[in-house]
TrEMBL record:
Biased composition (Basic and acidic residues): 28-58
Annotated signal sequence range: 1-24
Molecular functions (GO terms): formylglycine-generating oxidase activity
Homology family: Belongs to the sulfatase-modifying factor family.
InterPro entries (alphabetical): CTDL_fold (IPR016187), Sulfatase_Mod_Factor_Kinase (IPR051043), SUMF_dom (IPR005532), SUMF_sf (IPR042095)
GO annotations of cellular component type: endoplasmic reticulum
Name of this chain's protein: Sulfatase-modifying factor enzyme-like domain-containing protein
Amino acid sequence: MTDRRRTAVFLSLFCLVILYSTLASESESHQDSGSSDNKEECGCKQSRNKEDKEKNDVTESEADDSSHTRFYQPKTGDTLYPRTNQMVYIPGGTFTMGTDEPVFVLDGEGPGRQVKVDSFYMDKYEVSNAEFELFVNQTGYKTEAESFGNSFVMENYLSEEVKKEITQMAAAAPWWLPVEGADWRHPFGKDSGIKDRMDHPVLHCSWNDAVKYCEWAGKRLPTEAEFEYACRGGLENRLFPWGNNMMPRGEHWMNIWQGAFPEKNTGEDGYEGTAPVTSFPEQNKFGLKNIIGNVWEWTQDWWEVKHTKDFKDNPKGPASGTDKVKKGGSYQCTKLYCYRYRCGARSQNTPDSSSSNLGFRCASSELPKYLQTDTKDEL
Ligand SMILES: [Ca+2]
Ligand SMILES: [Ca+2]
Protein backbone atom coordinates (compact mmCIF):
# COMPACT_ATOMS: atom_id res chain seq x y z
CA MET A 1 0.00 0.00 0.00
CA THR A 2 2.79 2.38 0.88
CA ASP A 3 4.43 1.79 -2.47
CA ARG A 4 1.18 2.28 -4.32
CA ARG A 5 0.72 5.59 -2.65
CA ARG A 6 4.10 7.06 -3.55
CA THR A 7 3.79 10.70 -4.44
CA ALA A 8 4.94 10.77 -7.64
CA VAL A 9 5.37 18.36 -12.59
CA PHE A 10 4.37 28.59 -23.18
CA LEU A 11 8.36 50.52 -44.75
CA SER A 12 10.99 49.92 -42.08
CA LEU A 13 8.50 50.13 -39.22
CA PHE A 14 6.31 47.56 -40.95
CA CYS A 15 9.33 45.31 -41.41
CA LEU A 16 10.19 45.66 -37.75
CA VAL A 17 6.68 44.59 -36.83
CA ILE A 18 6.94 41.58 -39.11
CA LEU A 19 10.35 40.70 -37.68
CA TYR A 20 9.06 40.99 -34.12
CA SER A 21 6.05 38.87 -34.93
CA THR A 22 8.27 36.22 -36.46
CA LEU A 23 10.57 36.15 -33.46
CA ALA A 24 7.61 35.97 -31.10
CA SER A 25 6.15 33.14 -33.09
CA GLU A 26 9.43 31.24 -33.05
CA SER A 27 9.76 31.79 -29.34
CA GLU A 28 6.27 30.44 -28.79
CA SER A 29 6.97 27.50 -31.04
CA HIS A 30 10.15 26.78 -29.11
CA GLN A 31 8.26 26.80 -25.85
CA ASP A 32 5.60 24.54 -27.24
CA SER A 33 8.13 22.03 -28.45
CA GLY A 34 9.54 21.73 -25.00
CA SER A 35 9.88 18.44 -23.31
CA SER A 36 7.08 16.52 -21.78
CA ASP A 37 8.50 17.30 -18.38
CA ASN A 38 6.42 20.37 -17.70
CA LYS A 39 3.31 18.27 -17.32
CA GLU A 40 4.02 18.17 -13.64
CA GLU A 41 3.67 21.93 -13.59
CA CYS A 42 -0.07 21.57 -14.01
CA GLY A 43 -0.22 18.39 -12.07
CA CYS A 44 -1.14 16.45 -15.18
CA LYS A 45 1.05 13.56 -14.19
CA GLN A 46 0.80 13.94 -10.49
CA SER A 47 -0.92 11.13 -8.71
CA ARG A 48 -1.10 9.63 -5.32
CA ASN A 49 1.13 6.83 -6.43
CA LYS A 50 4.06 8.64 -8.06
CA GLU A 51 5.48 11.37 -7.80
CA ASP A 52 1.21 26.44 -31.54
CA LYS A 53 0.10 25.89 -33.87
CA GLU A 54 -3.12 27.84 -33.83
CA LYS A 55 -3.91 28.25 -37.47
CA ASN A 56 -6.28 30.78 -38.98
CA ASP A 57 -8.44 28.29 -40.77
CA VAL A 58 -11.11 28.41 -38.13
CA THR A 59 -13.76 25.85 -38.58
CA GLU A 60 -15.76 26.49 -35.48
CA SER A 61 -18.94 27.12 -37.48
CA GLU A 62 -19.14 23.40 -37.93
CA ALA A 63 -19.63 23.07 -34.22
CA ASP A 64 -23.08 24.60 -34.66
CA ASP A 65 -24.06 21.81 -36.99
CA SER A 66 -25.96 19.48 -34.72
CA SER A 67 -27.78 17.69 -37.52
CA HIS A 68 -25.69 14.61 -36.88
CA THR A 69 -26.45 14.56 -33.21
CA ARG A 70 -28.94 12.11 -31.88
CA PHE A 71 -29.69 13.05 -28.37
CA TYR A 72 -31.02 10.71 -25.76
CA GLN A 73 -32.94 12.04 -22.83
CA PRO A 74 -33.25 9.80 -19.80
CA LYS A 75 -36.28 9.55 -17.60
CA THR A 76 -36.02 11.98 -14.75
CA GLY A 77 -37.48 9.84 -11.99
CA ASP A 78 -37.41 11.07 -8.43
CA THR A 79 -34.05 12.77 -8.41
CA LEU A 80 -33.16 15.91 -6.53
CA TYR A 81 -31.19 17.34 -9.43
CA PRO A 82 -31.67 17.54 -13.20
CA ARG A 83 -30.21 14.43 -14.81
CA THR A 84 -27.04 14.85 -16.85
CA ASN A 85 -26.53 11.25 -17.92
CA GLN A 86 -27.68 11.85 -21.51
CA MET A 87 -25.74 10.21 -24.30
CA VAL A 88 -25.10 11.24 -27.89
CA TYR A 89 -24.69 8.93 -30.87
CA ILE A 90 -21.23 8.95 -32.39
CA PRO A 91 -21.36 7.50 -35.93
CA GLY A 92 -18.32 5.35 -36.61
CA GLY A 93 -15.63 6.11 -39.15
CA THR A 94 -11.92 6.27 -39.85
CA PHE A 95 -9.88 9.21 -38.61
CA THR A 96 -6.32 10.35 -38.04
CA MET A 97 -5.49 9.59 -34.42
CA GLY A 98 -2.59 11.50 -32.89
CA THR A 99 -0.60 14.00 -34.93
CA ASP A 100 2.54 14.33 -37.03
CA GLU A 101 3.10 17.74 -35.41
CA PRO A 102 3.35 16.71 -31.75
CA VAL A 103 3.75 19.38 -29.11
CA PHE A 104 4.91 16.89 -26.50
CA VAL A 105 6.83 14.20 -28.34
CA LEU A 106 7.53 12.21 -25.19
CA ASP A 107 3.80 11.89 -24.54
CA GLY A 108 3.43 9.75 -27.65
CA GLU A 109 1.22 12.25 -29.45
CA GLY A 110 2.57 11.02 -32.77
CA PRO A 111 2.64 9.78 -35.33
CA GLY A 112 -0.71 10.47 -36.94
CA ARG A 113 -2.21 7.12 -37.88
CA GLN A 114 -5.41 5.89 -39.46
CA VAL A 115 -7.80 4.39 -36.94
CA LYS A 116 -11.27 2.97 -37.45
CA VAL A 117 -13.86 3.32 -34.70
CA ASP A 118 -17.26 1.63 -34.74
CA SER A 119 -20.37 3.62 -33.95
CA PHE A 120 -20.97 4.08 -30.23
CA TYR A 121 -22.64 6.27 -27.67
CA MET A 122 -20.88 8.83 -25.48
CA ASP A 123 -22.00 10.73 -22.41
CA LYS A 124 -22.78 14.30 -23.41
CA TYR A 125 -21.39 15.54 -20.10
CA GLU A 126 -18.69 14.68 -17.63
CA VAL A 127 -20.15 12.67 -14.73
CA SER A 128 -21.44 15.16 -12.16
CA ASN A 129 -21.48 14.99 -8.39
CA ALA A 130 -25.27 14.53 -8.56
CA GLU A 131 -24.99 11.55 -10.89
CA PHE A 132 -22.21 10.01 -8.83
CA GLU A 133 -24.26 10.48 -5.68
CA LEU A 134 -27.10 8.45 -7.22
CA PHE A 135 -24.62 5.64 -7.79
CA VAL A 136 -23.28 5.79 -4.26
CA ASN A 137 -26.75 6.01 -2.73
CA GLN A 138 -27.87 2.91 -4.63
CA THR A 139 -24.75 0.82 -4.10
CA GLY A 140 -23.00 2.11 -1.00
CA TYR A 141 -19.83 2.31 -3.07
CA LYS A 142 -16.74 3.62 -1.35
CA THR A 143 -14.13 5.33 -3.54
CA GLU A 144 -10.44 4.60 -3.33
CA ALA A 145 -9.71 8.12 -2.07
CA GLU A 146 -12.12 7.48 0.79
CA SER A 147 -10.37 4.19 1.56
CA PHE A 148 -6.90 5.72 1.38
CA GLY A 149 -8.04 8.69 3.43
CA ASN A 150 -6.50 11.29 1.17
CA SER A 151 -6.25 12.60 -2.38
CA PHE A 152 -4.34 15.26 -4.31
CA VAL A 153 -5.51 18.88 -4.41
CA MET A 154 -3.79 21.95 -5.85
CA GLU A 155 -2.65 24.30 -3.07
CA ASN A 156 -4.48 27.33 -4.52
CA TYR A 157 -7.84 25.74 -3.73
CA LEU A 158 -7.17 24.86 -0.09
CA SER A 159 -8.17 26.79 3.01
CA GLU A 160 -5.43 28.06 5.31
CA GLU A 161 -6.60 25.59 7.96
CA VAL A 162 -6.15 22.62 5.65
CA LYS A 163 -2.77 23.87 4.40
CA LYS A 164 -1.46 23.99 7.97
CA GLU A 165 -1.98 20.25 8.27
CA ILE A 166 -0.01 19.33 5.15
CA THR A 167 3.13 17.44 6.04
CA GLN A 168 4.44 16.37 2.64
CA MET A 169 4.52 17.50 -0.95
CA ALA A 170 5.93 16.38 -4.29
CA ALA A 171 9.23 18.06 -5.12
CA ALA A 172 8.44 18.14 -8.84
CA ALA A 173 5.09 19.86 -8.33
CA PRO A 174 5.02 21.49 -4.90
CA TRP A 175 1.57 23.02 -5.52
CA TRP A 176 0.05 19.55 -5.51
CA LEU A 177 -0.60 18.43 -1.98
CA PRO A 178 -1.85 15.13 -0.57
CA VAL A 179 -4.77 16.28 1.52
CA GLU A 180 -6.18 14.20 4.34
CA GLY A 181 -9.92 13.80 4.02
CA ALA A 182 -10.05 14.96 0.39
CA ASP A 183 -12.50 12.84 -1.56
CA TRP A 184 -15.45 13.29 -3.92
CA ARG A 185 -17.66 14.66 -1.13
CA HIS A 186 -14.86 16.93 0.11
CA PRO A 187 -13.06 17.98 -3.07
CA PHE A 188 -10.81 20.60 -1.46
CA GLY A 189 -10.24 19.00 1.91
CA LYS A 190 -12.40 18.05 4.85
CA ASP A 191 -13.73 21.57 5.38
CA SER A 192 -15.12 21.65 1.82
CA GLY A 193 -18.30 20.14 0.39
CA ILE A 194 -20.30 19.60 -2.78
CA LYS A 195 -23.67 21.04 -1.76
CA ASP A 196 -23.19 24.03 -4.04
CA ARG A 197 -21.49 22.05 -6.78
CA MET A 198 -23.78 19.12 -7.45
CA ASP A 199 -23.75 19.96 -11.18
CA HIS A 200 -19.94 20.12 -11.28
CA PRO A 201 -17.85 17.13 -12.37
CA VAL A 202 -17.18 14.55 -9.70
CA LEU A 203 -13.53 14.73 -8.57
CA HIS A 204 -11.18 12.37 -6.76
CA CYS A 205 -12.41 9.29 -8.58
CA SER A 206 -9.75 6.77 -9.49
CA TRP A 207 -9.85 4.79 -12.75
CA ASN A 208 -11.13 1.86 -10.75
CA ASP A 209 -13.93 4.00 -9.30
CA ALA A 210 -14.83 5.27 -12.77
CA VAL A 211 -15.09 1.71 -14.09
CA LYS A 212 -17.47 0.78 -11.27
CA TYR A 213 -19.67 3.82 -11.89
CA CYS A 214 -19.88 3.16 -15.63
CA GLU A 215 -20.77 -0.48 -15.01
CA TRP A 216 -23.56 0.60 -12.67
CA ALA A 217 -24.84 2.97 -15.38
CA GLY A 218 -24.86 0.15 -17.94
CA LYS A 219 -21.95 1.76 -19.73
CA ARG A 220 -18.15 1.56 -19.85
CA LEU A 221 -15.20 3.91 -20.14
CA PRO A 222 -14.39 5.04 -23.71
CA THR A 223 -11.26 3.71 -25.32
CA GLU A 224 -8.63 6.35 -26.04
CA ALA A 225 -9.44 6.02 -29.74
CA GLU A 226 -13.16 6.52 -29.07
CA PHE A 227 -12.45 9.56 -26.89
CA GLU A 228 -10.19 11.18 -29.48
CA TYR A 229 -12.58 10.36 -32.33
CA ALA A 230 -15.44 11.92 -30.36
CA CYS A 231 -13.25 14.91 -29.47
CA ARG A 232 -12.25 15.61 -33.06
CA GLY A 233 -15.88 15.73 -34.16
CA GLY A 234 -15.19 14.72 -37.75
CA LEU A 235 -12.51 17.37 -38.32
CA GLU A 236 -9.06 16.23 -39.49
CA ASN A 237 -5.82 17.44 -37.94
CA ARG A 238 -7.27 20.21 -35.83
CA LEU A 239 -6.15 21.18 -32.36
CA PHE A 240 -9.55 21.55 -30.73
CA PRO A 241 -12.95 19.90 -31.20
CA TRP A 242 -14.18 22.95 -33.17
CA GLY A 243 -11.03 23.83 -35.14
CA ASN A 244 -7.72 25.59 -34.51
CA ASN A 245 -8.80 28.93 -33.01
CA MET A 246 -8.56 28.69 -29.25
CA MET A 247 -11.28 31.31 -28.81
CA PRO A 248 -13.84 31.03 -31.60
CA ARG A 249 -15.54 34.39 -32.23
CA GLY A 250 -13.48 35.70 -29.33
CA GLU A 251 -15.40 33.54 -26.87
CA HIS A 252 -14.26 30.99 -24.34
CA TRP A 253 -15.43 27.53 -25.33
CA MET A 254 -13.60 25.59 -22.65
CA ASN A 255 -12.59 25.85 -19.02
CA ILE A 256 -8.82 26.21 -18.73
CA TRP A 257 -6.45 28.48 -16.75
CA GLN A 258 -5.89 32.14 -17.72
CA GLY A 259 -2.91 33.93 -16.22
CA ALA A 260 0.56 32.90 -15.10
CA PHE A 261 0.45 29.36 -13.71
CA PRO A 262 0.49 28.58 -10.87
CA GLU A 263 0.60 32.04 -9.28
CA LYS A 264 -2.45 33.71 -10.79
CA ASN A 265 -5.69 32.45 -12.29
CA THR A 266 -7.73 35.36 -13.64
CA GLY A 267 -10.71 33.14 -14.39
CA GLU A 268 -11.47 35.05 -17.60
CA ASP A 269 -13.45 32.11 -18.92
CA GLY A 270 -15.80 32.48 -15.98
CA TYR A 271 -14.32 29.80 -13.72
CA GLU A 272 -11.22 29.67 -11.54
CA GLY A 273 -12.06 26.09 -10.62
CA THR A 274 -14.35 23.51 -12.15
CA ALA A 275 -17.44 24.56 -14.09
CA PRO A 276 -20.85 22.87 -14.19
CA VAL A 277 -20.80 19.97 -16.64
CA THR A 278 -23.48 21.73 -18.70
CA SER A 279 -21.45 24.95 -19.11
CA PHE A 280 -19.83 26.31 -22.28
CA PRO A 281 -21.06 25.71 -25.84
CA GLU A 282 -21.27 22.27 -27.38
CA GLN A 283 -17.70 21.82 -28.54
CA ASN A 284 -18.38 20.00 -31.81
CA LYS A 285 -21.10 18.59 -34.02
CA PHE A 286 -21.50 15.59 -31.77
CA GLY A 287 -22.95 17.88 -29.11
CA LEU A 288 -20.33 17.07 -26.48
CA LYS A 289 -19.60 19.50 -23.67
CA ASN A 290 -16.25 19.98 -21.97
CA ILE A 291 -14.68 17.10 -23.90
CA ILE A 292 -11.60 19.29 -23.58
CA GLY A 293 -11.06 21.40 -20.50
CA ASN A 294 -12.81 21.41 -17.12
CA VAL A 295 -11.52 18.04 -15.88
CA TRP A 296 -9.22 15.42 -17.32
CA GLU A 297 -11.09 12.25 -18.22
CA TRP A 298 -10.12 8.63 -17.80
CA THR A 299 -10.11 6.25 -20.77
CA GLN A 300 -9.99 2.45 -20.85
CA ASP A 301 -6.49 2.14 -22.28
CA TRP A 302 -3.20 1.36 -20.62
CA TRP A 303 -0.55 4.00 -21.32
CA GLU A 304 2.11 3.58 -23.98
CA VAL A 305 4.04 6.17 -25.97
CA LYS A 306 5.30 4.18 -28.95
CA HIS A 307 2.83 4.01 -31.83
CA THR A 308 3.26 2.85 -35.41
CA LYS A 309 1.59 4.34 -38.47
CA ASP A 310 -0.15 1.02 -39.08
CA PHE A 311 -3.91 1.12 -39.57
CA LYS A 312 -5.80 -0.03 -36.50
CA ASP A 313 -9.39 -1.24 -36.19
CA ASN A 314 -11.02 -0.24 -32.89
CA PRO A 315 -7.77 -0.30 -30.88
CA LYS A 316 -8.00 -0.80 -27.15
CA GLY A 317 -4.39 -0.05 -26.22
CA PRO A 318 -1.83 -2.45 -24.78
CA ALA A 319 -2.87 -5.56 -22.87
CA SER A 320 -1.22 -4.38 -19.67
CA GLY A 321 0.66 -1.49 -18.14
CA THR A 322 1.12 0.60 -15.04
CA ASP A 323 -0.74 3.79 -15.96
CA LYS A 324 -4.05 4.53 -17.63
CA VAL A 325 -4.54 7.17 -20.35
CA LYS A 326 -6.40 10.36 -19.51
CA LYS A 327 -7.49 12.91 -22.11
CA GLY A 328 -8.75 16.46 -22.56
CA GLY A 329 -6.76 18.60 -20.12
CA SER A 330 -8.29 20.50 -17.23
CA TYR A 331 -9.13 23.86 -15.67
CA GLN A 332 -5.54 23.92 -14.43
CA CYS A 333 -3.96 23.84 -17.91
CA THR A 334 -2.43 26.83 -19.70
CA LYS A 335 -0.63 27.00 -23.01
CA LEU A 336 2.80 27.43 -21.44
CA TYR A 337 2.19 24.76 -18.85
CA CYS A 338 0.31 21.66 -19.79
CA TYR A 339 -0.83 22.58 -23.31
CA ARG A 340 -2.85 19.42 -23.31
CA TYR A 341 -6.35 20.71 -23.91
CA ARG A 342 -5.98 19.41 -27.47
CA CYS A 343 -7.71 16.34 -28.90
CA GLY A 344 -4.38 14.72 -29.80
CA ALA A 345 -2.81 15.36 -26.38
CA ARG A 346 -2.70 12.75 -23.65
CA SER A 347 -1.36 12.06 -20.20
CA GLN A 348 -1.48 9.30 -17.63
CA ASN A 349 -2.02 8.29 -14.04
CA THR A 350 -2.00 5.03 -12.16
CA PRO A 351 -5.47 3.45 -11.97
CA ASP A 352 -5.80 3.97 -8.21
CA SER A 353 -4.79 7.63 -8.26
CA SER A 354 -7.17 10.54 -7.88
CA SER A 355 -7.02 14.32 -7.81
CA SER A 356 -9.04 17.52 -7.91
CA ASN A 357 -8.73 17.97 -11.68
CA LEU A 358 -9.52 14.48 -12.90
CA GLY A 359 -12.94 13.06 -13.72
CA PHE A 360 -14.53 10.93 -16.41
CA ARG A 361 -17.50 10.25 -18.65
CA CYS A 362 -18.83 6.94 -19.91
CA ALA A 363 -19.39 5.43 -23.33
CA SER A 364 -21.37 2.45 -24.55
CA SER A 365 -21.57 0.31 -27.64
CA GLU A 366 -25.32 -0.04 -27.16
CA LEU A 367 -27.67 2.59 -25.82
CA PRO A 368 -28.71 1.58 -22.29
CA LYS A 369 -32.38 0.68 -22.20
CA TYR A 370 -33.25 3.30 -19.64
CA LEU A 371 -32.09 6.00 -22.08
CA GLN A 372 -34.30 4.74 -24.88
CA THR A 373 -37.41 6.85 -25.43
CA ASP A 374 -39.67 3.87 -25.75
CA THR A 375 -38.93 2.42 -22.35
CA LYS A 376 -40.01 3.27 -18.86
CA ASP A 377 -36.89 1.88 -17.28
CA GLU A 378 -35.12 4.27 -14.99
CA LEU A 379 -31.77 4.47 -13.35
CA1 LIG B 1 -11.06 28.63 -16.04
CA1 LIG C 1 -13.21 17.35 -19.75
